[in-house]
Amino acid sequence: MRPISLKTLSGALFITLCAATTAFAATTEADSLSAALSRARTPAEREQTYVRLADLCADSTALAALYWEAALTEAAGAGDDYGCREALDRLVQGFSAKQPERALEYVRLADSLLPDRRFALFRASLNAFWLWKQMSVANSFEAIDRAQAEFRERQPGSLTPEEEIEWEFLTGLSIDYSSIATEAYGNIPQAIPYVEQALAKLEKYPLEERVHFEKLCREELADIYLYADDPRAAGQIGRCIDLHRAWVAADKRFERPRRDSAEYLMRSYGKMVFLGGLLTREEVDGYYDKCMELARGRGDREEIYNTSARYYRDRGDYERSTAYMDSLLTHYAETGKKADLGSIYIAQSHLYEKAGDYAKALEAMRKGNDFRYHSRMDQAQSKLAEMQALYDVNRLELEKSRLADRNKLFLLVAGGIVLLLLAGWAAYQQAMVRRLKLARTQFMAASEEA
Fold first, then answer.
1. CA-CA to 51 of 20 to 30 Å: which in 17, 178, 225, 243?
2. Which of 216-220, 331-335, 444-448 has the lowest mean pLDDT?
């Protein structure tokens, strides 16, 4: 796929951004930023305004993406490396799940915008995150299989140190998710050494260069530790929080009063709650309170319901836990957000069973099985449609090849006929010339006799 051009991007975004900014200018702050945008004269000034607009409308994924795209264009024009990395990171994270091809364009664009060796780990982190999303959301292992095959085909010793780190991380990631996909959960800990080796090599790099990839590695390692009931999971989540804060603190360019740094902390505290028996009760209570404070401040109902269901389940309060699960299911139904509803119903059925409510446990189990059945059917239909599309493409290519062959044959036959005609015409011309020469000779001889 051809990487997108910044000039093309900026031209395509201009009209859309004008309309978006006008529609968004309902608040005083947005109106003020829109006015500042019209007065901006340099790429740095425009980038600052676009970033602040993106921060302001963080709840609107589509609108924020437009501003981040514009900010990326201006950051590249201003030579702002931090701005380019932040915009690329936001765009890849925002598009990887729902628009993977678009996200992949930004992964490849990073190669041309940030070609220096010191950004090699950042570029690798974008690619690794994109692959992780294809496995965790789309259940597709083809992309990571291709990536690993490309690494294997390289000559021994030809990989750069950054590529070796990426290969080790992707190997661990592949083992983790393939084990989950095949329900071979006992194989998940086999991924730990690969991710740990990647982290050990990352420690040799400056924090500014490794921060994104290290956070990605530690998030993956925390998930694996959690599956393996390893208490080291808490330490990995804590390090991720430190890395997040370090990356935010490194931004010294301009004030960003609307920058949302709470979401990552909220998710991290929620993960701490999911550690359950790996922490003391007081520690879990503290993380739960921090998570709920941030979630209520953001109005994040999904986080409130999901984390609360797990928290009260671990406390043995099955009635409240199942109630929060009901609220979570209702939230997904109202918002239309995709989620693994089958797993939620199955978990709910186990809680009803523990509470002695076997009728509701059976009902929840049936619903969970129905959702899993339909989910597998949808996946099978999607795979069948993909295979059908591939078959149609191959059939069209075959027909195109056959048509090309027929055209070539026609041209060869036509060319042969033309050559035969030309040869016949040449032979005829030569015969006529010989006859004329003979007639001339006879005429000359008769003239001499006369």
1. 243
2. 444-448
Can you tell me the distance from the alpha carbon of 330 to that of 322, in angstroms, rounded to the nearest whole number? 12
- Residue 392's pLDDT is 63
* Residues 6 or more apart in contact with residue 274 via CB below 8 angstroms: 226, 307, 310
Alpha helices, H only, 182-253: 192-202, 207-227, 232-249
CB 50 within 8 A of CB 64: no
Cβ–Cβ < 8 Å for 284, 250: no
pLDDT of residue 225: 92
Among candidates 196, 206, 208, which has minimal Cα distance to 169?
196
Residue in the structure block whose two tokens are 């302001």: 56
CA 153 to chain centroid: 24
Q: Which has the closest alpha carbon to 54: 76, 30, 38, 74?
A: 30
Structure-block tokens of residue 43: 């790429």
Q: For the chain, give the percent of residues with pLDDT over 90.
A: 43
* Residue located via tokens 């859309």: 16
Concatenated DSSP letters of 424-436: HHHHHHHHHHHHH
Q: By C-alpha distance, which of 85, 134, 126 is closest to 105?
A: 126
Q: Mean pLDDT check: name the lowest of 99-113, 234-248, 366-380, 399-413.
A: 366-380
Q: Using an 8 Å Cβ cutoff, are 288 and 304 in contact?
A: no
Using pLDDT thresholds of 50, 70 and 90, give the confidence band for residue 375: low
Question: What pLDDT, on a 0 to 100 scale, did the predictor assign at position 14?
Answer: 44
